[in-house]
Specification:
This is CD166 antigen. This protein is mostly beta strands. Helices cover 10% and strands 46% of the residues. The strands form eleven sheets. Strands 32, 34, 35, 36, 37, 38, 41 and 42 form an eight-stranded mixed beta sheet that branches.
Length: 560
């Protein structure tokens, strides 16, 4: 490299400077020398080498003590390059007749440290010019230049908005420069999260280079321009009993910490943090809610609807009524929206609402009136009616001859609630029959039946008793030899009575009339003659000797 037409050596600060003597060694060389020139032009000799004795001598120059080295080809090396080494050095070759000189210019370069942004502002405020920070790059030679960047783009000075001042200070002991660039900046709201950095540009042996600082992000403060109110949790529906949190927020930085909340029914705003909590809300909480900054500026509002559902069942709880009575039932609904109502009886959904103009035993049960608001999750109400239908025992007795003609079935059909207890007795003797069979008790009805084979006429009594009343009914039963089909046997579990086939009924009546005509003359005679043995015949079927004795005595009295 040439500087002003002279040979130049570029060196890095701290490295070794190597300067070759660019003269051709002449014949008759006596010695070679190196010198440098002072600013005033006077020479300072620093190194000598004899061509004959091969010895090297270094002059006593404090700045170059122990730093010089002169090779056989008269190349001069200077260790630990300094800024002060930037001089004009001259190589001299001397003969008896001539002195040849060749100058060399030394340039020293030092890369600055990576720039840092120091004295950073804690935060920036919009509409206010303030010191953002200082970019500092140290130990540079020659001096460098500092440029500020925002989001990768150069920040140009703008009056009262971007003010940049650059200071360069040289260390007198080393000759190195420190560059300090301060930035005063007026931010806008858009500068939130902006990245600020600085770059130092400098010259090195190979040309211009740059080093960039680490980017810095500043907290930008700006005032609130809008207030927003929210209802938490963010559910589309609110029902009675829910907890509601009103949250008010402002879009400033830092955000406001206190607000005024305006609640329906309250004349003045309630000062609170950014949240206002309402627990177990009722329907009267429906209305418009507002919030504002504490200076009553920038207000926002929202409307809250608290959904409700009321159910009134009349009557409800446990209700006891008598069979045949009327019972009006009503399920009244009051709600914030159209509600769905349905009835359940004994865990089975009903198709229609219950209505009782004349209560029957099958009407008893557990009734539930339930209603829901389908649009409001979890809003459901139900009430229960436990209906008890009571009735005094009612008895109907039937008899028939079994198909084998060997026995007769006597049935006592009983209705009543609570379930009546049934007892069979033989009229006259008072004997109790313990061999009765009962059907299942369903809807207040059941049957008790016995099977007998009386050889003579007998009268049976069915007694049904519950907490309400005791009912007694008797039935005359003819001897087994006389068929009887006056009533069919109850064959259903629900004790509903079926009428026998009409043809069989007519045949039975005709046969009965014919038999009555044929035996009318002898019935009384048979009755008198065998009255003493009637008890014995019944006892044969019922298995009770003591009862037969009583029946015989009663028959004897009747004969007398």
């Amino acid at each position: 490299p040439l500087a002003l037409g002279l040979y130049t050596v570029n060196a890095v600060y701290g490295d070794t400077i190597t300067m070759p003597c660019r003269l051709e060694v002449p014949d008759g060389l006596m010695f070679g020398k190196w010198k440098y020139e002072m600013p005033n032009g006077s020479p300072v000799f620093i190194a000598f080498r004899s061509s004959t004795k091969r010895n090297v001598q270094y002059d006593d120059v404090p700045d170059y003590k122990d730093r010089l080295s002169l090779s056989e080809n008269y190349t001069l090396s200077i260790k630990n390059a300094r800024i002060s080494d930037e001089k004009r050095f001259v190589c001299m070759l001397v003969t008896e007749d001539d002195v040849s000189e060749e100058p060399t210019i030394v340039k020293v370069f030092k890369q600055p440290s990576q720039p840092e942004i120091l004295h950073q502002a804690d935060f920036l405020e919009t509409e206010k010019l303030q010191m953002l920070g200082e970019c500092v790059a140290r130990d540079s030679y020659p001096e460098g230049n500092v440029t500020w960047y925002k989001n990768g783009r150069v920040l140009q000075p703008v009056e009262e908005a971007v003010v940049i001042n650059l200071q360069k200070i040289v260390d007198k002991s080393t000759g190195l420069f420190t560059m300090t660039s301060s930035l005063q900046y007026m931010p806008t709201k858009e500068d939130a999260n902006a990245k600020f950095s600085c770059i130092v540009s400098y010259y090195g042996p190979s040309g211009q280079k740059t080093i960039q600082s680490e980017p810095v992000v500043f907290d930008v403060h700006y005032p609130t321009e809008k207030v927003t109110i929210q209802v938490l949790p963010q559910s589309s529906t609110i029902k009675e009993g829910d907890n509601i949190t009103l949250k008010c927020s402002g879009n400033g930085n830092p955000p406001p910490q206190e607000f005024l909340f305006y609640i329906p029914g309250e004349a003045e705003g309630i000062r609170s943090s950014d949240t206002y909590i309402m627990t177990d809300v009722r329907r009267n909480a429906t209305g418009e809610y507002k919030c504002s900054l504490t200076d009553k500026s920038m207000m926002d509002s929202t409307t809250i609807t608290v959904h409700y559902l009321d159910l009134q069942l009349t009557p409800s709880g446990e209700v006891t009524k008598q069979i045949g009575e009327a019972l009006p039932v009503s399920c009244t609904i009051s709600s914030s929206r159209n509600a769905t109502v349905f009835w359940i009886k004994d865990n089975t959904r009903m198709q229609t609402s219950p209505s009782f103009s004349s209560l029957q035993y099958q009407d008893a049960g557990n009734y539930i009136c339930e209603t829901t608001l389908q649009e409001v999750e979890g809003l459901k109400k139900r009430k229960t009616l436990k209906l008890i239908v009571e009735g005094k025992p009612q008895i109907k007795m039937t008899k028939k001859t079994n198909t084998n003609k060997m026995s007769k079935t006597i049935v006592c059909h009983v209705e009543g609630f609570p379930k009546p207890a049934v007892q069979w007795t033989v009229t006259g003797s008072g004997s109790i029959i313990n061999k009765a069979k009962e059907t299942k008790y369903v809807n207040g009805k059941f049957s008790s039946k016995i099977v007998i084979a009386p050889e003579e006429n007998v009268t049976l009594t069915c007694i049904a008793e519950n907490q309400l009343e005791r009912t007694v009914t008797s039935l005359n039963v003819s001897a087994i030899s006389i068929p009887e089909y006056d009533e069919p046997e109850d064959r259903n579990d629900d004790n509903s009575e079926k009428v026998n086939d009409q043809a069989k009924l007519i045949v039975g009546i005709v046969v009965g009339l014919l038999l009555a005509a044929l035996v009318a003359g002898v019935v009384y005679w048979l009755y008198v003659k065998k009255s003493k043995t009637a008890s014995k015949h019944v006892d044969k079927d019922l298995g009770n000797i003591e009862e037969n004795k009583k029946l015989e005595e009663n028959n004897h009295k009747s004969e007398t």
